[in-house]
TrEMBL record:
The Tat system comprises two distinct complexes: a TatABC complex, containing multiple copies of TatA, TatB and TatC subunits, and a separate TatA complex, containing only TatA subunits. Substrates initially bind to the TatABC complex, which probably triggers association of the separate TatA complex to form the active translocon. This is Sec-independent protein translocase protein TatC. The chain crosses the membrane at residues 14-32, 78-102, 114-134, 164-187, 199-217, 223-243. Belongs to the TatC family. The lineage of its organism: Bacteria, Bacillati, Actinomycetota, Actinomycetes, Kitasatosporales. InterPro entries: TatC. Signal peptide: none annotated.
Length: 299
């Protein structure tokens, strides 16, 4: 299509995606309390100063945190942020489809197949990372709250708590996409399985460093909770890539199938004396410049 038509289609796709996000955000605003309770419940059950937990904390000489909302506009800002985040997440099937519908016409058949596989495996992996983050956060919160000095009270702003939970879920979810990206690079021929296997020492150290930076808690348990699944997924990706490389080598050794075209052999062979190619005969010279019906005799 011409450039103007591409821009027009991009505008329509973006408008549909934004409209879906706005509609879902408005609907989510009516369920704001249920959403925020679901997001913050694991952390509050672990460190929140409810009546029973606060009494237990005093008995064990431990600490708990009071959830606070400061400022007149803070509740509205919190509700808007929660509703918008829920709108983006819950409307993801719509705006992902719009993105795919804009890109798909320019892809080849095998590229579409890889894209389907990436989406099919990528979404469950992202959910798995978010699920782990959702259940690791209470342990992280307990470790951080226990560092509070004696006699001090913890005031935990609700906005900061929601930001922390959202950021952790996104970071864990995206980290789980790394092995899938390696497999896709192997399937497209960019990266071999042997090369990935040679990186295993650096990948173990790099994933551990990433987990230490991504998790807010300094305890090793939280870091291992993120690093261990990614280590396992990395070695699974290496195994899949090695099997794919072996399959490619076996197919190359067997030659093309009956319905496949063989590759042309363009290497020169020694065929002995090469016969000279006769030169083309020159056109006869024009004896005159007269033209018949406007054309010369050669034409």
């Amino acid at each position: 299509m011409p450039l103007a038509d591409h821009l027009r289609e991009l505008r329509n796709r973006l408008a549909k995606a934004v409209l879906a996000i706005v509609v879902v955000t408005i609907v989510s605003a009516f369920f704001y309390q249920d959403i925020i309770n679901f997001v913050t419940k694991p952390v509050l059950d672990s460190v929140g100063c409810s009546q029973s937990l606060g009494q237990l904390a005093k008995t064990k000489n431990a600490h708990c945190a009071h959830i606070t909302v400061s400022g007149l506009l803070a509740p509205f800002t919190l509700a808007l942020k929660v509703a918008l985040t829920a709108g983006i997440v819950l409307a993801s099937p719509v705006w992902l489809y719009q993105l795919w519908a804009f890109v798909a016409p320019g892809l080849h058949r095998h590229e579409k197949k890889y894209a389907y596989a990436f989406v099919g495996f990528g979404f469950p992996l992202f959910l798995a990372g978010g699920y782990i983050a959702y259940h690791v956060l209470p342990m992280t919160a307990r470790v951080m709250i226990d560092l509070t000095p004696k006699g001090a009270e913890n005031l935990l702003p609700a906005v900061d708590l929601v930001d922390l939970v959202t950021r952790m879920i996104i970071v864990f979810g995206l980290a789980f996409e790394m092995p899938l990206l390696l497999v896709m690079l192997n399937l497209t021929g960019v990266l071999s399985g042997r090369r990935m296997l040679g990186w295993w020492r650096g990948m173990i150290v790099g994933i551990a460093a990433f987990a230490a930076v991504a998790t807010p808690s300094p305890d090793p348990g939280t870091m291992l909770a993120l690093a261990a699944p990614i280590w396992a997924l990395f070695f699974i990706a290496v195994a899949v890539s090695l099997l794919n490389d072996r399959r490619k080598e076996r197919r190359a050794a067997e030659g093309p199938a009956d319905d496949e075209a063989s590759e042309l052999d363009l290497t020169p062979e020694d065929i002995g004396e090469i016969e000279p190619v006769p030169a083309a005969r020159a056109l006869p010279e024009q004896s005159s410049t007269d033209r018949v019906n406007g054309y010369d005799d050669v034409t």
